[in-house]
Amino acid sequence: MSTIALDDYEQILRRHLKYLPDGADLAPDDDLRTLGLDSMAAVELLFDLEDNLGVMLPDEALAEQTFTTPATLRTTLEELGEDGGRS
């Protein structure tokens, strides 16, 4: 899995953004914190992504900068996909 399906990724991400209105655009550079992704929501998002995309984020990826924007998170997930994602 070198790239993750945009629709799947965005659908999962949207479930955890409490301040993103239904049907609103989600830009790659949107600030996830502004859209409601606090530390608890990030943990829930992490589990949701792992369960649905078949990847496991290593400890070093569990940093604030990983969860800054949709693009930074997606890039991290795609890099994991290239490495197999599971360790």
From TrEMBL:
Sorted keywords for this record are: Phosphopantetheine, Phosphoprotein
The protein depicted here goes by the name Carrier domain-containing protein
What superkingdom heads the lineage? Bacteria
- Top-down, what is the taxonomic lineage of the species of origin? Bacteria, Bacillati, Actinomycetota, Actinomycetes, Micromonosporales
Q: Which residues form the signal peptide?
A: none
Q: Which InterPro entries match?
A: ACP-like_sf, PP-bd_ACP, Ppantetheine_attach_site
Describe the location of the Carrier domain by residue ranges: 3-81
Give the species. Answer: Paractinoplanes deccanensis
